[in-house]
Amino acid sequence: MIEADARQILSAGSGTPPSRPHIPNGNAMVTLKSVNAGLRKASEAKLYPLKEALELAGITAPTYYRWLKSGKIEDSRVRGRRGVTLLPTDAIARLRDEATRVEVV
Predict the structure, then answer these.
(1) What 3-state DSSP class applies to 71?
(2) Which of 48, 66, 69, 59 is nearest to 101 (CA)?
(3) How far apart are alpha carbons 56 and 12 in whole angstroms?
(4) CA 58 to chain centre
(5) pLDDT tens column, 74-99
(6) End-to-end CA distance of the chain, in Å?
(7) For residue 61, is it within any domain?
């Protein structure tokens, strides 16, 4: 069933009828494996506790929550197994960029 769905997705827009789709390397599972590997890689991103993440970004907790409330940054917090709030490394990088950005008045 999954292979059939993958074949239809891969053949969409290629001009090939669904009964004979063009599948790279002759195997739809190669494509599905690469998609799954990408999802796994994203889910395995390094997560830091909020306090440590804010120290790495160079901002304080009140600043972080003020920026969240004002919409200056997007909320990318993740709840850990024990209720700990975590931030992924890409969110920390965005916070650091925002903290070091200079506004010209």
Answers:
(1) coil
(2) 59
(3) 45
(4) 22
(5) 998 988 888 899 999 999 999 999 99
(6) 59
(7) yes
Residue 32 sits in the same domain as residue 55: no
What's residue 82's pLDDT?
87
Predicted TM-score (pTM) of the model is 0.55
Please give the structure tokens belonging to residue 28: 């739809």
In a domain, 62, yes or no: yes
Residue 105 lies in a domain: no
Query: Alpha-carbon distance 8 to 89, whole Å?
Result: 36
27 and 51: one domain?
no
Task: Report the candidate in 93, 98, 47, 51 with the shortest Cα–Cα distance to residue 72.
Answer: 98
Determine the Cα–Cα distance for residues 12 and 21; give it in Å rounded to an integer: 9
Q: 25 lies in which domain range? A: 2-43
| CA–CA gap between residue 104 and residue 55 (Å, rounded) | 26
51 and 86, same domain (yes or no)? yes
Residues 28 and 57 in one domain: no
Residue 73, number of CB atoms within 10 A of its CB: 17
* Number of domains the chain contains: 2
